[in-house]
Every structure is written in C-alpha cells, then in structure tokens.
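Reopening this one. Same input as before:
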Amino acid sequence: MDRRFSRIKAYYDAQDREKHLQGQLPMRSTEVGFWGVSHLEDVQIFFLQKRFPPEMRFLDIGCGDGRVVAVASLYMMAHGVEYDAELAHVGVQALKNLSLRASITCADILDIDIAQYDVIYMYADRNFSYLKEKLLRELKGTLYLYHDTYHPDFLVKQKTTWIGQIPIFAYRAPTLQE
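Same output, byte for byte:
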C-alpha cells in the first residue's frame, strides 16, 4: 500500500475511532443534506484505475471532512467545497495536519465555478434539482457519483466503474445535438 495513502487512512481511521468513543458515527444530517463518508480504499482504487493525468483539477462537492480531497491530492490538484462550516473546518485541519497540497472552501456549491474542474466527485445525498441549471451550464469535465443513490436524469450517463460492490457512475453534460 502506498505510504502516503496509508498515512491519510490512519489519520481518518483515528478520527473515526474518536467519534465512535464519543458514541458518534462519521455521518450526520447537515443543514442542506446528509454527510456520509466514502470508503478511502474505494477512492484510492478508483484513482489507480482511472489514471487521471496529474495536471487535471479535482473538485469534491460536499466534501465533508475532506477525506476524498486528501486522497485525490495524491493524484492531481484537489479542492473541496462544503456548506457545513464545522465539517469544512475539520477538513481544512485534516489537510493541514497531513501536510497535503489541497484546499477546502466553506461555501454553497451554487456560488462556486465548476467549469474549471476536470473531475467532479460527489456522494449524491439528495436529488439534483438544485444543481440542474448549474451542471448544464458549467459542467465541462466528468461528474462521478459515488454509490447508487440519486442520479441526474438531465446528464448523459457514461461508463460505470465498479470498485468491489460499489458503483461509481460517470456523467457528462449533453451536447447541443443530444
């Protein structure tokens, strides 16, 4: 296992153990949705399989505590956006503690220009009606959805990547001809 990935995994495993000792799980409702975590091993395998060029730009929408951003930073320029101020703060601290070159912004995704990102990742915790116009207008890269929850019926579905039993769905914006 990659030493850099092992360090990230150990950090978040310790965070999860601490939450467990306090009677909490690494998930909760937020003001705008539900925060749940992606499994870091799945995320690493995804990046290893995809072999994205390192100059590509990555965005995690609703990045929570920053764990996916942390792993993505091992492979490309990585950024996350999180609406919940507490989660965003935890994520920023994690990136700092791990000395990773990545960033997290506490903001509403509707206020972020996503056109500059090649790879957009999301654990879809609600339907896409609030993002429809933004994605149709600004999505230039590929949107990857972790797990089989909600799907944007207005985007063009591409190849699904399977990591064990977990699907990661790829979508792109439709062309004018579609």
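So the earlier flakiness isn't reproducible anymore. For the record, The two ends are 43 Å apart (CA to CA).
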